């Protein structure tokens, strides 16, 4: 069974984070929600309280196949400023593991130096924060082991793509059918 860590920081866009967690778990991926900011209870950008499974500082990247960053303001700023998020994300990228981000989240990957020369997508109007990435404007963009999603509206296809990468296309298609998501 594949394992993924999803970092939840105060101010995250809860739908981008929770849809990814939900769809990956439905596909059979073991997902850990890791809290950033000193408390396991994370308050989202829309004031939803979410209790994480672990603290970001407890995450050993060796134990995961993927590292995922949701968007949201000021969530992405909190992700970008967190040393543990940087440590885990960079270690996963260097080890050739899946690294993914959605909405404003890809700007964090760019800030960590992971997108130079790569194709990626990001929330409209944030292309100037993508430090050397080739912005596609697509709903979901996969470039090697880096997967990016454009915005909340792309959260389901983004999560289904990650499910295919981590659990196989059959598992992703099974989830797609179960949630009655159009092909």
How are the SSEs placed, and which strands pair?
Blueprint: E1 3-8, H1 14-26, E2 30-35, E3 41-43, E4 49-51, E5 54-55, E6 66-69, H2 75-81, H3 83-94, E7 98-102, H4 106-111, E8 119-120, E9 134-135, E10 140-143, E11 146-149, H5 155-167, H6 169-178
Parallel strand pairs: 1-2, 1-6, 2-5, 6-7, 7-11, 8-9
Antiparallel strand pairs: 3-4, 10-11
What does it look like?
This protein has 183 residues and is of the alpha/beta class. It contains 6 helices and 11 strands. The strands form 3 sheets. Strands 5-2-1-6-7-11-10 form a 7-stranded mixed sheet, sandwiched between helices. Strands 3-4 form a two-stranded antiparallel ribbon. Helix 1 runs parallel beside helix 5 and helix 5 packs antiparallel against helix 6. The longest helix is centred in the first third of the chain and has 13 residues.
Please outline what is shown here.
The chain is of the alpha/beta class.
Descriptors:
6 helices, alpha/beta, seven-stranded mixed beta sheet, globular, 33% helix, two-stranded antiparallel ribbon, 183 residues
Computed CA radius of gyration, to the nearest angstrom: 15 Å
The end-to-end span amounts to 26 Å
Oligomeric state of shown chains: single chain
Q: Based on DSSP secondary structure assignment, what is the total number of beta strands?
A: 11
- Write the element-wise H/E pattern from the N-terminal end onward: EHEEEEEHHEHEEEEHH
Roughly how much helix do the residues carry, as a percent range? 25-40%
From the spread of the alpha carbons, the general shape counts as: globular
If helices are DSSP runs of H or I spanning 4 or more residues, what is the number of helices? 6
Strand portion: 15-25%
Main sheet specs:
7 strands, mixed
Mean pLDDT: 97
Low-confidence stretches: none
Query: Which structural class do the helices and strands define?
Result: alpha/beta
Strand order of the largest sheet: 5-2-1-6-7-11-10
């Amino acid at each position: 069974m594949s394992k993924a860590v999803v970092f939840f920081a105060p101010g995250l866009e809860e739908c981008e984070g929770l849809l990814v967690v939900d769809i990956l778990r439905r596909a059979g991926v073991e997902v850990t929600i890791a809290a950033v900011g000193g408390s396991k209870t994370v308050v989202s950008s829309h004031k939803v309280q979410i209790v994480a499974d672990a603290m970001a500082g407890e995450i050993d990247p060796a134990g995961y196949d993927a590292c995922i960053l949701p968007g949201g303001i000021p969530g992405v700023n909190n992700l970008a400023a967190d040393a543990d998020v940087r440590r885990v994300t960079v270690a996963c990228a260097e080890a050739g593991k899946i690294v993914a981000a959605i909405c404003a989240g890809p700007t964090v990957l760019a800030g960590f130096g992971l997108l130079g020369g790569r194709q990626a997508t990001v929330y409209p109007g944030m292309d100037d924060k993508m430090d050397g990435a080739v912005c596609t404007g697509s709903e979901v963009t996969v470039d090697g082991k880096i997967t990016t999603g454009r915005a909340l509206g792309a959260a389901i296809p983004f999560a289904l793509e990650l499910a295919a990468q981590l659990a196989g296309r059959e598992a992703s298609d099974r989830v797609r059918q179960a949630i009655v998501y159009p092909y």
